[in-house]
Amino acid sequence: MIIGFLKEKAPERRVAVSPETAKSLLAMKTQIYMESGAGEEACMFDNDYVKAGVKIATRSEVLASSDCILSVHGILPGEFDIWGNGKILVGHLNILGNLPLLDKLITYKTTSFSLDLLPRTTIAQSMDVLSSMATVSGYKAVLDAAMHLPRFFPMFMTASGTIKPARVLILGAGVAGLQALATSRRLGAVVDVFDVRSAVKEEVQSLGGRFIEVPGAVEKREAGGYAVEQQEEYRKLQSKMIHNYAIKADVIICTAQVPGKKAPVLITEETVESMLPGSVIVDLSAPNGGNCALTVNNSIITHNEVVIIGKVNYPSWISMDASRMFSTNLTNFARLLIDTEGNPAPDWNDEIVKYTCLTHEGKIVNEKMIAAFKE
Ligand code: NAD
Question: Which of 125, 195, 243, 271 should be mutated for ligand 1, with most atoms under 8 A from CB?
Answer without folding.
Answer: 195
